Amino acid sequence: MNLILIGYRGSGKSTVGAILAERLLRRFVDLDRVVTEQAGKPIQAIFAEEGEEGFRQRERQALLGVRKSKNSIVALGGGALLNEENRPLTRRLGKVVWLRAPAVVLWSRIRNDPETLTSRPNLTPAGGLAEIEALLVERERTYRAVAHHAVDTVSCTPEAVADAIEIWFRAGDGGKD
Description:
With 177 residues, this protein is an alpha/beta fold. It has a single domain (2-171), classed as 3-Layer(aba) Sandwich (Rossmann fold), CATH 3.40.50.300. The protein has helices spanning 13-24, 31-39, 43-65, 86-93, 103-111, 114-119, 128-146, 158-171, and strands at 2-6, 27-30, 72-75, 94-100, 149-152. The protein has a five-stranded parallel beta sheet, sandwiched between helices. The longest helix is centred in the first third of the chain and has 23 residues, at 43-65. It is globular, with a radius of gyration of 15 Å. 36% of the residues are buried.
């Protein structure tokens, strides 16, 4: 069974996903990385050349590409669930865990990660904390509806978040091959 991580940018999906893949001896798929590898360019360039719609189409194709995966850890991009067709597909892929954090924590993490800060475009004219607050309000209902489980990442290390997910996943027989 696959384990799918969802949540806003900066919630820890890629970091926690890599930890879980190592612990559970599974392949790790970072959907944003798949998109950039297939496009041959970074996310900011995709947005600049194709707009958000072009990026979301590429994201959809990448998600369809992992639908036959078994026993993988998959980290979705923060906006992957904006496409309504991706929501039931994500739930069919496996157990879905929403990594949550308040906007101010996400903004701090994004600001302190040079790769994320320079590789991701603003999604609203305001950018920064105001953007995160606005988009979290829009996306929270979707994250909640798609997730089988949620983990608060505010005061936890990535290892502690991975611990909580691993315990939950194994308890629900997600650890069986």
